[in-house]
Specification:
- It is a single chain.
- The protein is an all-alpha fold and 246 residues long.
- It has helices at 11-36, 41-59, 67-86, 90-97, 105-126, 130-154, 168-189, 199-215, 220-237, and strands at 162-163, 166-167.
- The chain folds into 2 domains: 1-98, no CATH class; 118-246, no CATH class.
- 39% of the residues are buried.
Length: 246
């Protein structure tokens, strides 16, 4: 379990940091090339959304100290700025590639930045119980992403009703993948817990995540979904666990 201090980099820290930083650079490069080749921007955006969130969720717990994630961020930024030095409009192009129709690049930046803030808050508050912050990260990476992937692919097949251009099919996708996110987090990080014994709680949390995504405006879903997920998993699955910050 990662400790909340900056210490000497271990072999595990360096290995995970190299993997995370390089993988992040590759994912951004693929997303950029897809968008540049004419692929719909939402597809490249969701590639980054799902891939980067999954990498963070499944690696952050295994660092030894905070030096590891900091080193990973440094590697990623080094790759990004090296590429930017050779293509001055790279960052702007990436933001445009990750923007929805009629959405500004500033909104895209806010979405990513506030999502990372929510991840950090969930991690710092619940780091002693990895299941909680991993579920919070995956709920955005998988659950929220499913809303757009399923909605754009299957929207209108069950019903033509929608709310703020969000389809019933997309909302059901959010619900299903949010539940899967929590189940995976429990199986990976809480082997002492029977996931099926908490199926009702997981279903209710998934429904709450679906409502949060449905009612969110713009980038706010990336901020609120992790926090709502973390708090509800704590209250309904780990109610006796005390909060801990720092």
């Amino acid at each position: 379990m990662v400790e909340l201090y900056f210490g000497e980099l271990t072999t595990i820290d360096i290995t995970l940091a190299l993997f995370t930083g390089i993988a992040g650079g590759i994912i951004l490069a693929i997303a950029y090339m897809l968008a540049d080749s004419g692929v719909n921007h939402w597809k490249s955006r969701k590639l980054v959304h799902i891939s980067m969130g999954s990498i963070i969720a499944f690696t952050v717990h295994f660092y030894v100290t905070l030096s590891g994630p900091a080193f990973a961020a440094g590697i990623f930024l080094t790759i990004l700025f090296y590429a930017w030095a050779h293509k001055s409009d790279l960052i702007t192009s990436l933001l445009i590639a990750g923007s929805r129709e009629n959405e500004s690049s500033l909104n895209t930046f806010a979405s990513g930045f506030m999502g990372m803030i929510a991840f950090m808050v969930a991690f710092l508050v619940f780091f002693q119980r990895p299941t909680i912050f991993v579920a919070a990260i995956l709920a955005v990476s998988w659950g929220d992403a499913a809303g757009e992937v399923v909605g754009r692919s299957l929207g209108g097949t069950i019903s033509s009703l929608n709310y703020k251009k969000k389809s019933i099919e997309g909302s059901l996708g959010v619900w299903a993948l949010s539940m899967l996110s929590i189940l995976v987090a429990i199986v990976v990080h809480s082997p002492d817990i029977c996931p099926l014994c908490f199926l009702l709680q997981i279903t209710l949390i998934g429904f709450a995540i679906m409502l949060t995504e449905l009612l969110s405006i713009g980038w706010t879903d990336n901020f609120f979904i992790p926090l709502v997920t973390a708090v509800l998993v704590w209250l309904l699955i780990f109610p006796g666990m005390p909060l801990f910050i720092g």
